[in-house]
Amino acid sequence: MADTVGEVSDADPGWLTSAHVMVVAGKGGVGSSTVAAAAALAAAREGADVLFISVDGRPGMGPLLGGREISDREQTLQRVNGGGRVRARTIPADQAFGDYLELKGVGGLLRRAASAASLPMIAAATPGLEHLLVLGKIKELEKDRNADLIVVDAPPAGHAAPFLRSASGLSDVVKSGPVLDQASEVSEMLADPARCKALLVALPEETPITEVIELADDLGDDLGINLLPLIVNACWPDRAGLEKTPAMAARSHKLKLSDSAKSALESAAAFGRSRLAQQREQIGRLGEARDGPIITLPRLATPRLGSDDLATLADALVRADQGVDDES
Amino acid sequence: MSRDQRSDVEKSVASLDEVIRSSELILTCGPGGVGKTTTAAALGVAAARAGRKTVVVTVDPARRLADALGLDDGAASDEPHRVKGVTKRTTDGELWALMLDAEQTFDRLVREQSGSRKQADAVLNNPVYQAISGSLSGAQEYMAVERLHQLHVSGDWDLVIVDTPPSRHAIDLLEAPDRLVGFLSHPVYRTLTVGQRTFAKITDAASSMFLWAVKRLAGPQIVEDTVEFFRSLANIEGGLRQRAKQVSELLRGDDTAFVVVSSPRAEAVGEAEHLLDAIADKKFPLGGLVVNLIHPMPEPLTDDDEDLLAGIDDGPLGDQLDWHRELTSLAIAERQELVELERLAGDAPVIELPLLDVDIHDVPGLVGLAARLV
Asked: Domains plus CATH for chain A?
């Protein structure tokens, strides 16, 4: 298994655009929105026309991708050399509902009245309907081939699985009508590897790795969604020199350190060693639990990611995409 | 430059001791992935060891933590379980834990608020109710505060601690009771439930549109069930409104404390700031701020040492130097992220906790964390 940052094992080249829709999901706090943005940028750099969909309109993602905040009106955030670009929008449930009614031939005035007055009530009566409407809209965009790749930043925390499960869940309550049709069309898209795949994100720590294994079982094995390589985000780069004590490290440079320097360097090295050991152990555990390829992305030494940092992550994904890692 | 910043973690003498000794209700809230559940459990350990009979209500705990709290996957997890290995001395209280089951809590609420068993069954057996009780938008948030209320009024507990559902919009929780009232006041809901009107007589535009849309979208059967559900809910509506009001008051009471948990990452800090603003704005009592997962600040290199090491940029020592610089700059940047967050906490105690080598998932780990919190 890959244990070197920014590399991939066993992945086919071109995995980024191997399906039309990439749903990016992970528990809260693992950086799945950032990874989604990096994947969109990486695919654009490979020349793709990418549509980035932020399901819950998380603030900050538009500026990170080089544009304004993402809204329900589509905008182009960034063009890259080689013809690729990143467009972005959110899909509010009431707008998706309006679009859906329009598609079903319901006139303008009625449509506005229906979506404004009734959606909260209809949604309350039909659980999962809001999620389904959003997925239904994504399905329409996919069908129209609106973009070479649609990257979906799925809701975080405990909500990614219910979001994707809305289609199969609804068919338990709703026995007939267009909602059922919509649900089966969405389920069909989710299960078709040429049309949709999921990119699952974890951190190299015990609980996030356990949770991504559960999520992979849940979405992959249970819901039949095809998985892209698993992403382990925020991995510290391996630094072999940390394995030595500062004094030993200095000796190989024929230097003698002061006691204060030894103590200062060791105060950082001790922490680094334990993080790297934990990281190796957890990535190894993920490799044993899941058969597919694993991509590790570097931990960037900042609490606030900027556009340069995003480019670094996109580079790591592109490198993985090109399958430069021949060692594994 | 880093001397002032580096002493922050060490010099912190703030404590949640007062909060766990004097509150009757504590709610931990904050963005996902920052250790909220673990913090709630550790506060429970601290309170039990301070002599209080404490129950911790968790939402979706990581599996190993759930195991440590004696909460397996069984349905009985919704009732309090005694947590073993926490309390030893005779002066100690007790620690109990349960896992929130939104559906069971909703069922209990319906039964309590119904005038008769028949009324309750009419709601509980309705297919629409069964489908929405777990998934109604915001239901989990509302049921977390409802469960808190149930436990609080039972009189069985000195302290009830509720770990709130993970949410990017943690603010949902604070507004949950108001949202239920809003739902009950929705014009469509009112038209459907007021009086004894039949379908044929429902003529107002929004309601007929609603019924039409449900029918068109989801088939005729669900329309019957929906209207029937709203009708049966009308019997207990007064009770639901009353309860929402009580819960809302309870959350603002003198014996309640909100503990906001965050990490120093920019996204988490942004959400936590938003939450602190809302808590202040809506006049909820803030008990404290816990900032978790802070990277340690390495000891600084002296100027002489920097001079000696200036030319080294590769090999084992290069690795050591790179890492020292990287960790130092990250630790400084994290502390800068926290300045505004900690200002927003005002007079409330702020506890900073380091990123640990291992996740906490057993009772000894919780005991260790409890000691850092109080």
From this structure: 15-321 (3.40.50.300)
Residues contacting residue A35 through CB under 8 Å, at least 6 positions apart: A24, A26, A199, A201, A231, A233, A297, A313
Q: Is there a contact between A272 and B188 if contact means CB atoms under 8 Å apart?
A: no
Work out how many CB contacts closer than 8 A connect A with B: 239
Residues of A in contact with B166 (CB under 8 A): 27-28, 156-158
Pair B159, B24: CB distance under 8 Å? yes
Q: Which residues of chain B neighbour A176 with C-beta distances below 8 Å?
A: 218-221
Q: Where are the domains of chain B?
A: 3-173+254-373
**CB proximity A204 to B under 8 Å:** no
Per-10-residue mean pLDDT, chain A, length 328: 44 78 90 95 94 88 94 94 93 80 66 57 64 90 95 76 76 70 89 95 92 90 90 93 94 91 96 94 96 93 91 91 49
Superfamily of domain B3-173+254-373: P-loop containing nucleotide triphosphate hydrolases (3.40.50.300)
How far apart are the C-alpha atoms of B46 and B363, rounded to whole Å? 12
A244 touches chain B (CB under 8 A): yes
| B320 to A242: CB separation less than 8 angstroms, yes or no | yes
A253 vs B64: CB contact, 8 Å cut-off? no
- Calculate the alpha carbon distances from B167 to A25, A158, B131, B188 in Å: 15, 8, 22, 28
